[in-house]
């Protein structure tokens, strides 16, 4: 997605296009996996001329999440992970219980079970917890 597309999404959500909002949304859109705010800060430090401070990063992520442009994932540990909300099918995630690496899985999320009458699902999260290949390689039988 291009910066003009990302800027339009921010404006369509009713917000001002700030440097921080655009940088965070660009970072999450470019990432191969959901990121923590600290990982966003590291990425911007390596790849951007303008690096917002930690508080500004958190505020930008909060605004983007509140306005439905990024989603917070349930994770192991204290650090939340975020990914952009895109016009694609819902998908599951795998999270390593040892290193906390979180990966998007290509398979679609299983179908939603029937809900009681009058209920409406707004969001589904499927997180599979286990050990990633690198952490498994360090395991002893």
From TrEMBL:
Coiled coil: none annotated. It holds the Pfam family FUR. Signal peptide: none annotated. InterPro entries: FUR (IPR002481), WH-like_DNA-bd_sf (IPR036388), WH_DNA-bd_sf (IPR036390). This is Transcriptional repressor. It comes from Tepidiphilus baoligensis. The lineage of its organism: Bacteria, Pseudomonadati, Pseudomonadota, Hydrogenophilia, Hydrogenophilales.
